[in-house]
Amino acid sequence: MGLYGMLRTSVSGMGAQANRLGAISDNVANSNTPGYKRASVEFSTLVLQSGGQEYVSGNVQSDTRYGVSQQGSLSYTTSNTDLAIKGDGFFVVQGQNGQTFLTRAGSFQRDGTGNLVNAAGFKLMGYDATTGTSNAVSNGTAGLSTVNFGGFASLQANATTAGKMFVNFPSSATTVAAGDLPSTNSATAQYTGKSSLVVYDNLGNQVTLDIYSAKSATGTWEMSVYNRADADPTSKGFPYAAAALTTQTLDFDTAGQFTSSSARSLSVAVPNGGTMTIDLSQSTQLSTSYTVFSATADGNAPSEVDRIDIDPAGSIYAIFKNGERVLAYKIPLAKVPSPDNLTPSTGNVYSISSTSGDLLVGTPNVGGFGSLVSGALEQSTVDLGSELTQMIEAQRNYTANSKVFQTGSELIDVLVNLKR
Amino acid sequence: MSLSASLNVALSGISTSSDQLAVVSRNVARANEEGATRKTANVSTNEGGASRVTSIVRLANPQLLAAVLKSNSDAGTQQVIANALNQFDLTVNDPSLQGSPSSLIGKLNAALQVYAASPQDVTAANAAVAAAKNLAQGLNTASLSVQQQRSEADHAIGASVNNINSLLAQFQTLNDEIVRGNGSGQDVTDSLDQRDLIVQKLSKEIGIRTVTEGNKSMQIYTDQGVTLFNGVPREVTFNATAFLGPNTMGNAVYADGIPIVGGSGTMISTSGQIAGYAAIRDSLGVTYQNQLDEVARGLVEAFAETDPSGGALPPALGLFSWDGAPAMPTTGAVNKGLASSIIVNAAVDPSRGGNASLLRDGGINGTNYVYNTNNSSAYSDRIQKIIDNVSQSRSFDNAAGIANTGSISDFAGASAGWLQAQRKSASESSSYNNILQQRATDALSKETGVNIDEEMTRMLQFERAYQASARLMTTIDQMFQTLLDTYK
């Protein structure tokens, strides 16, 4: 039994080392594959029941492991759709046949139909921000759709809903008589200062709001908002064809700040648009000229998507040609309790196995999930130096096993030759 | 640390150094370019020790830029005013030609004295009329020249408005690019430089104030707070007038629906070239024209014929006539354009078939106005009376902006003095503002510009860093070689 056992054992040893060499060759071949996690082969013994004084040699079993949880170093690229994960988690991607996989290979590119597709052809999935993330579930991929910028045209015009205007009203300005206040819309209307804000209606048309400020009494200012389109064509101002969109009285205390009871915002119903609130909260009434410190309004005209921007929390913004940033998608990360037990498939993707544990989907940067780095790729975790040294070791082991086999074979030869 | 990881770090070192070197070369290449600021690369270290250029920033100083903008505007205004006043001075008060109203009045006065001394002398009569013609022409020329300056100022306002609109359009392109680039983390420093340059150009045209938002979008307001740019440019409109006469005022410049220059309102800009042109067109030019008109009115009134018998006949035009003849100009107030139409009465002008001796005898307006009823050739009372009228103190309209009483020649002298004083103050203020502008620009350039010496030092630094990273790569390569050499 001993000699045959020796042959069998050495064959299993050679097989195990061959397995190891196989893993090493995969590692060396994929040493530059982004998101590749190095494979290793671990060995264990198989002991056959030895009886009495006889030693029955056993076998060596090999077990393939993947260091999926190992973080690869980041290399930076010039494409901002190249994504890397710093920390735990995987991208959720969709394969050709619609099944979902996990991956850390983030070399995504926009394809012809607007999908973000990585080098292995998997499409990135995320929550569509326009429908909200309300249908997201934390233990599955429900609510996820492929990130697509092809159909983003519907998002392009946004009506204005908010704005701000911080102004200093000159305390020393002449008081305007009640009959001449801008709110009267009379041809003789007087004002201290005038500004305009460009806002957008529901169709994305520009609407210019003329905002007049007039001192109606000491410490009291009146702001009236008119639609520029209604302005008198000759005077370019008063009288407007339609009454003021809104008129608001503001009260200032002796220190030039709003009194506690004063209004601090304007609510304007934009013609054919939404109701916008113009925040005035940081306005003052001090002894200097009429000065606008800041005046902005949100909303945008119809515009094409120029490029996309991805932040570390996984929010994908569409940057329009006019500079507007609109949140388009939220990319979630997925993780499992034992990433090393995920089943690898072609294209650097992994699927859940019985030993990996259940899927958990969450937001990057929150609750133990890693953060996203845009413009970077996670490199392969393979270190050529250690692979090469292990290869030498495996080669020597293989040779040693073959020597054992050779010895066994020679001994059997001797045995067979006992009888001539 | 493993060999592959070290190789990665060495590689990142090489690419960082070359990125930094690219920034240096950009700086050096643009060292002499107007408005170019110094760029630096921000380098950060990532886990694993690799370095990378995370962003490129430029040296900017908003406070100094604001000072430059203000000084540009102020220098622009004063420069324009000083140039126009110099032009007035050259055409009206040229000392070599002795063509100023006050010296022409002096000459007329002298000719009248001679004529009064020998009233029978026809040559003296003709000389007096010739001097009067010179004076009338002098006033016509002066008035025309003022109107030309005003018209030029009006055209310059038009050109300035066009320039402002085109600068604002360029501004929008750059601003959009900056906001977009800033949103996606791109390098927008060159666009920022360009945008600052446009703002500087704009400040020469009109006084402005800028506000920068968090997304690097810039808003532009005039010095009085009228919006010129906020997301989109506000159209600046102006209707130029082909030629401005003494009675026409020129249109206002509108922006954002309200007058910003050359009209009335609470938000009229006071600085920038456009404000200078408006001052010439609407204030200085008008005042000087008023003075010329008042001199002309004084002359018409001094030479007017009154009832010789002291009766109730109304005063009538004498030696000097105007386009409102036969009526007398309105007394006590500026008659707009009188200086441009004043002319020697045809009845007295021998070259137009008149008789110069009517100056001595009167009767330009018919026999009722004849002073020399005896037709005596030695009659000099009328001439004497005119000489007295000219030197008599009379009152002038306050709209002329100078002393409202005095003789005609006093008034003409005061007008010349006023012009000189305005010119002097404008040119002093112009040179003062030019110096301020120069200083502000120098300070900005010193603070934010490129210093070649510094760039060269940095270049050496980056070169060394590059060499060190390259050396590291060679070493790692040799170590791999050693490992591979074990297979023989």
Could you please describe the fold and organization of this structure?
The complex is a heterodimer of chains A (420) and B (488). Chain A has 420 residues and is α+β, with helices and mostly antiparallel strands. Helices cover 15% and strands 33% of the residues of chain A. Chain A has helices at residues 2-29, 384-416, and strands at residues 39-46, 59-66, 74-76, 83-86, 91-94, 100-103, 109-110, 116-117, 123-128, 145-146, 162-168, 193-200, 206-217, 220-227, 246-251, 265-269, 275-279, 291-297, 305-310, 315-320, 325-330, 333-335, 343-345, 349-351, 360-362, 371-374, 376-378. The radius of gyration of chain A is 36 Å and the shape is rod-shaped. Chain B has 488 residues and is of the alpha+beta class. Chain B has 2 domains: 3-59 and 452-485, no CATH class; 66-436, no CATH class. Chain B is built from 11 helices and 13 strands. In chain B, the strands form 5 sheets. Chain B has a 4-stranded antiparallel β-sheet with strand order 3-4-5-6. In chain B, strands 7-8-9 form a 3-stranded antiparallel β-sheet. Chain B starts with a helix and ends with a helix. The chains are: A alpha+beta (420), B alpha+beta (488).
